[in-house]
Amino acid sequence: MMPQLLYLGNKRAVTNRDNCGFSWRGFTLWSVKYKASGAVALEVKKRWYFSVSSVNVLKSKTSRPVKKSVLRGINLERSRMMNKVLILSFAVLISFPVGVAPTFAQALSTFQNGTVADADEINANFQLLYTQIQQMSSGTFQCNTYTSTLIETADCPSGQTLTGGGYAFYDSTGSLADGAAALSRPLGNGWQCRVQGGVSANPEITTNCYARCCGQPDTNLKFGSYCKSNYCIQTADPFYPTHVLYAMTLEENRFSHFPMDVDESFIFPPENIGAASLLVRYEGSDYHVTNVDERCLGEDSSRRWWDCLSDWENISIFEAAVRSGTLVAAPGPLRLFDEFQIRNSADTVIRFQTRLSKGHSASDAFLASSGFSMYRVEPGTGNRDENDCQEHELPFLVSVAGTLHNENSNVSVHADQLIENPGTFPAVGGAFRALACSNSPTGVYDVGFIALDGLGRKIHLGEIRVTILEERRPGGEIVPNG
Predict the structure, then answer these.
(1) 1 found inside a domain
(2) Among 220, 236, 129, 148, which residue's Cα sits nearest to residue 190?
(3) CB 400 within 8 A of CB 410
(4) Which pTM value belongs to this model?
(5) Once rounded to an integer, what is the mean pLDDT over residues 425-452?
(6) Does residue 6 form part of some domain?
(7) Do 20 and 114 belong to one domain?
(8) 288-340: pLDDT as tens digits
C-alpha cells in the first residue's frame, strides 16, 4: 500500500479538464494538458529526480549529482476506452537521506518530453520509491501533513523540510469552492495558497493550506501520539499522565476545518469543565453542539453559562465528526468561547480551547522579558489554596500583536514544561500568570514557551529563566529580571 501522499496544485482542475502542473523553485517539473478528446498528455519539463540530501540529487538513469532537493511525481493509469493515460492523483514524494545507492536511480524509468507516459513505468517508479521509504529508519525520518486555515501559509515546523503542498477552498457554507482560482506554491519552509485577488476580494471563501514536511520534528514543539498538528501541544500535567491542549480559532460566519487525532479509546460526551457552543457541519447538515441550556439562559438575564450547564446536544454527531479526522465548525448561536475536554481509559486528556479570531497569528507573539524571580508565600497570607498560594499577573513577559499581556487575542502562549506546586496547580504553566505558594519548589528553571494561534501555526518563542527563591513574603511576589 502506498503511503499517504499529498497532491500538488489543484486536484479539481484535472477533474474540470483544465491544465495543471507544478513548479518547484523556478523549475517546472511536469505539466498536464487535456486534449480535445479528453485524453491526457503528460509533458515532462524536467526528468524525474530524487534527493540524496538537500544538496546532492541523482538524476534518473545517471549518477551525476544536480542541485535540487525534492522528487515530484504523478500516479497515472491507462484509460480503458482510449488506451491513453488519465490522471488519477498527483502527489508529493519524499526527500531521501544521504546514502541512497546510485543503482536505485538507474532503476527508475525515464520519460520523453511531449509524449504520453507509460502508466506501468510510472507506477513502477513509485513502487521502487515506496520500497526505499520502507527501508528507512522511522526514528530519524518521518513525514507529516500540516494544515492552516484562514492564514495563507502552512508552515513546516523546525526540524522538518517542505516537500510539497496543496490547498482546498471552501465557500461560506463549508462546501468545496470548485471554481475558485488559486495561487498555490512553496514559500520559504511552508506552502502558500490563496484565492486569486486575496481574501478581501473573496470574503466568502475560506482557505485551507496543506504542507507536506519531512524530517525529525523539533521536540520543543511538543508533538505526540495525540497531537500531530500545529493546532496543539502534548505535555506533562500534574493531574493526567498525558495532556493535549488543542487551540480552535473560529471565524465569524465561516466554517473552519480542524484536523483531529482522536481514536476510539476516547469517551464521549466531553467533560463539562467549561462551556461550548459550536455549529458543526457533518455530512452536509449543520448541528448546534452545546452543553448549555439556551432556555435557562433566556429566562433570567442575570444567569451565566455555569448556571445553565446541561446534557450535551447533538453529541453523537459531534463524536462522529471528531472521529472522522476533520472537524468542520463555526461559532455557535450562544456565542460562548471557552473550553471542554475528552479523555480515554488511560487518562489521556485532550482539552479543546475555543476562541474567536482577532486576526492574529502565532508569528505575532514574542517573549518581551528574560524571566523573573518568585518569592514564595508566607503561610496563611495567600488568597487561595487555604491561603497558602496566590496568583500573580505577568504583564511584562509576552507581547502579542504589539500589546503586552494581550489575552484579548486568538493566540495563546503555553510553557513547554511545568514547574509544579505540590498538591495544586503549577507555579508556571502559561505566559500570563504564575502561582506562588508557600511550598513552591526552590531552584533555577529554564522554561520554554510555545505560541498557538488555533489557525494552524505553532512557534517555539524561546526560553526564560525562572528563579524560585527560598525567601517568603506576604502573598508572595514576582520580580522581573533586570
Answers:
(1) no
(2) 148
(3) no
(4) 0.69
(5) 94
(6) no
(7) yes
(8) 999 999 889 887 778 888 899 999 999 999 999 999 999 999 999 999 999 99
pLDDT, tens digit, 9 for 90 and up, residues 246-301: 999 999 888 889 999 999 999 999 999 999 999 999 998 999 999 999 889 887 77
Strongest mean pLDDT among 142-146, 256-260, 350-354: 350-354
Verify that 432 and 369 share a domain, yes or no.
Answer: yes
435 in any annotated domain:
yes
Of 290, 288, 247, nearest to 272 by C-alpha is 290
Looking at the fold, whether 43 and 109 belong to one and the same domain comes out as yes
Residue 275: how many other CB atoms lie within 10 Å: 21
Question: What residues pair up with 157 in beta bridges, in sequence order?
Answer: none
Give the span between the Cα atoms of 325 and 322, in whole angstroms.
6
Structural domain boundaries, residue 322: 218-357
CA–CA dist 151, 359 (Å, integer): 9
Domain's final residue, options 185, 215, 245: 215
Contacts for 454 with CB less than 8 Å, ≥ 6 apart: 231, 247, 248, 249, 353, 355, 357, 410, 411, 412
Asked whether 182 and 10 are in contact (CB, 8 A), the reply is yes
From 136, 156, 188, give the residue that closes a domain.
Answer: 136
> Domain check: are 239 and 280 in the same one?
yes
* Domains in the chain, number: 4
Mean pLDDT of 25-51: 31
Poorest-pLDDT segment among 44-58, 92-106, 154-168, 468-482: 44-58
Residues 367-401 pLDDT 10s: 999 999 999 999 999 999 999 999 999 999 999 99
Q: Are 421 and 439 in contact (CB under 8 A)?
A: yes
- Same domain, residue pair 348 and 226: yes
**110 and 154, same structural domain?**
no
Burial call 338-354: b when 16+ CB within 10 Å, e when fewer: bbbbbbbeeebbbbbbb
Residue 257: CA atoms inside 13 Å, Cβ hemisphere, count?
24
**23 within some domain:** yes
Same domain, 224 and 260: yes
The rounded distance, in Å, linking the Cα atoms of 391 and 388 is: 11
Judge whether residue 119 has pLDDT over 90.
Answer: no
